[in-house]
Structures are given as structure tokens and as C-alpha cells.
## 1
Amino acid sequence: MTELLSPLGQKIFDNALYPMTFKKGEVIFREKEHVDQVKLIKQGLVKLSHNQTSGKPLIIELLDEDNFIELSSVFNGRTHEVSAIALENTLIHSIDIQTFFTIYYNNTSFNEEINRKMAGSNKFLLNQLVARTIKRLPGRVADVILYLYELNKKSLTFNVPLTRLEMAQLAGTTKESLIRTLTEFKNDKIINLDGRNLTIVSLEIIQTLSRFG
């Protein structure tokens, strides 16, 4: 995304950023912490989770390389609304929030791309909220599979970066219900699942389950 910066903007960004490495499972920031830096994923995969009033975490979104983490909190309130945790060894480029805003307001193309990213994230979160409210469990699990399919560049076979519990948190269900549904999908020859290796056998059925919930 930084390739959209002007030469001066790129120079300011490069001089201001500093790299941070996080091992798999390490917390990048916690919910309710003050936002004083903007973080860009250069390598790796990050999950965003939110603690419900029940105390059970709900996975909100997964972010891979070239994505800024939780831009909404950068622009709103300056307090993290979610926690960010590395799902694999991850390299982050961090930049002071005031420097980020200097770049943001003085680079039109970069500004527009940031706004587009935030709009896309807001649309995704709205769709997630609607799905968890009105869709039955098979539709929600199909949504998770399609989400991972898109994250893996539409490969029909991929390694699931989440545990079964984390998949359940993304689907808004229990681990037991998720496992039961995945087993049903496997028995119906909709997917193959071996540990964390998942193959979509019938993309059409998964898409139909997602669409009609």
C-alpha cells in the first residue's frame, strides 16, 4: 500500500517506521489499550478478537500482509476495540500515529486507499453481524470456509491457520457444534479435512450454503 505514497511521503514513512517481530501466538496489542502507533503487516497473519460480555472471545477478522491493523481505532477514539494476535511468525512495521496522519492528509492516493480499506472492513463486519444473527450454523461454517478460501488466494486446498476453537469463534458458535458441522460436510463429501489440511470438494455447495444460510 505504501507504493501509493509520493516520494516525499515514502521518505517520511521509511524514516519513521521501525520493524517489530512477533512469534506465533504473541499479542501485538490488547483490547482497550491506547493507540499511539499505526501497525502495518509486512509478513505473516494476524487475528483480531473481541471479548464478549460473557467473557468468551469472538474472532472479528484475519489480516495478512500489506494490511494496516484496526484502522478504525486509529481514526476513532484512539483506544483499541479489539486485541491483535499473531497466528504465525509476523513482521510488523510500526509508525507513530501523528506521522501517519501527516502522510495520510498529504498523499491523495494513499488517503483514498486507506478509506477504501476501511470501507471494505466495515462492510465485512456488517456482513458478519448479519450472518451471525440470521444464518443457521451450516451457513456460518460455510462462510468461514469461503473466508479462508479467499484468504488463500482461492486455492481449493489450503492449511487452516486456526484451531477448531478459533474457527468456532469466527463462526460465532461452540467448538463442539463447529466440529459436528465440519464432520457432516466431510461425510456429505462437500469437503475433505485432515487435521488442518482442508480441501473444498464442492465449491458450489459451500457457496450455496453460504448464500442461503
## 2
Amino acid sequence: MPIRPKTGFFIFLDEFSRLHRSEYDKYHVFTDAASKAWLKLDDATKENYNEMSRLERELYKIQIKTQT
């Protein structure tokens, strides 16, 4: 079974984690900072992440169809 695609926010969260996770000692503080960073992003940048999510969903649909 293919892995379900991520939303734009979770793609952003993966990237944010790679860049900033070592700065936070507690996970809830890290996720709070990531959420605030997401809210501060401009619409064009958010749309880039959402486009990556759409591409992942299309790939997922193809994988599901070919698997059955």
C-alpha cells in the first residue's frame, strides 16, 4: 500500500524540522514555532508547498490504480 500524501503544511514541517529542530528541546515548543512560521509565510510560498502536496496526491492516485 502506498504512503498517503502529505498536506502542504506537513511538507513545510519536514523542511522546517531539518533546518530548526536542533534549536528546540521540547517537541511541543518546536511544533508551536513551526505553526507560527507557517502562518507568517506569504501566500506564494504556501502555494508552492500546496502544489507539492497536489503532485504527491496525483502520484498517490496513480500508485493506487496500478496496485489494484
